Amino acid sequence: MIDYLSDIKPLEDDGVSDEIIAKHLSDRTANAMLCSNARTILQENLAVVQDPALNVRSGTLIQYYESMEDGEPKHLLAWFISHTFGAGIDVDTNQYPRSIQWSTVTAGMDAGLKFVAQLLIDSAGGQPDAGTVSADVVAARNQYEAEQAERKRQESIQSVQAEIENNWINPAISDGVSTAAQVREAIKSGL
Description:
The protein is mainly alpha-helical.
């Protein structure tokens, strides 16, 4: 479930567009991707095999990396591999902008690597808001604003009720003859 205050407003305050917020929400994982889990998944699926004697990495993900054109996706994948097999603890695929960066890196992968990428996503709790579009961001904002307007309306009603209690009902029952219920009924019948 998308929460306006925690999921949208901070990005909105930073000037991020609804379209990019929707992309982030759609791409993000439920939790950060733990490097220890990622290493195991990559090694078990032969995506990255590390030769302990030569300290050289090979595998389908390394081949994919080597075939990529120079640019941001290649640099992000290099960082991911180094971080995962280095001293990294987790990869914040549940946070902006890492969520979108991860999606960018995996977009061009073949079916075999997309399967491994999905295992990595699943290890981070899946993508609970997959399929989010700009209209969902707008709907969450509108719902929040409607809830705030209703809260203010309720506060206004409570304020008026308190004013009636303090200015009319309490003084009227102070004589000990009338009850609060009688005074309220008298006020209602006079309206």
